Amino acid sequence: MPVIRSAGAAAQSIAVSALKAESARMRVIAENIANANSTSRTPGGDPYRRQIPVFSPTKVEGGQGVRMVGAQPDGTAFKEEFNPGHPSADNRGFVKMPNVDPLVEALDMRTAQRVYEANLNIIETARSMESRTLDLLRK
């Protein structure tokens, strides 16, 4: 006998996939923020490179969800700062700084939090609708 899934259950499955993806996205953003000032361990070497989350559609029960498949390095140029006394300075006295902008990361984090909250609301609404439907069927 086939299993019948409600629209609410499908919505919940899709929202759960988004919750997992946004949680992973927030971890990548937190890593970027934590390394915003991480320079190379060797003179003239490259510092931490900002990571960008990569998402992909995925099949979930009742529909199509999303998942984070990994993170890819951001190819934007590193900033250079003149600091000849720094252990990571090159022969010209410049230190390569990470290509992480804390303001951009803070905005990305806020967006991820809002998407996470929206998906929590979807789950809560779907549960509430199913509960109300069951209450109506009991009458």
Walk me through this protein's architecture.
By secondary structure, the protein is an alpha+beta fold. The protein has one domain. The chain is 47% helix and 21% strand. The protein is built from two helices and four strands. The protein has helices at 7-34, 102-138; strands at 51-60, 63-73, 79-82, 94-97. The protein has a two-stranded antiparallel ribbon. A two-stranded antiparallel ribbon has the order 3-4. A hairpin with a 2-residue loop joins strand 1 and strand 2. It is rod-shaped. The mean pLDDT is 91.
Number of domains: 1
The end-to-end span amounts to: 27 Å
Record the strand order, biggest sheet: 1-2
List the total number of helices: 2
Share of residues in helices: 40-55%
Radius of gyration based on Cα positions: 22 Å
- Give the H and E element order: HEEEEH
**Percentage of residues in strands:** 15-25%
- Characterize the biggest β-sheet: 2 strands, antiparallel
Q: Look at the helices and sheets and give the structural class.
A: alpha+beta
Shape: rod-shaped
Q: Quick check: average pLDDT?
A: 91
How many strands? 4
The unreliable regions are none
In short:
The protein is an alpha+beta fold and 139 residues long.
Describe this protein with a few key phrases.
139 residues, alpha+beta, two-stranded antiparallel sheet, 4 strands, 47% helix, rod-shaped
What topology does this entry show?
Elements: H1 7-34, E1 51-60, E2 63-73, E3 79-82, E4 94-97, H2 102-138
Antiparallel strand pairs: 1-2, 3-4
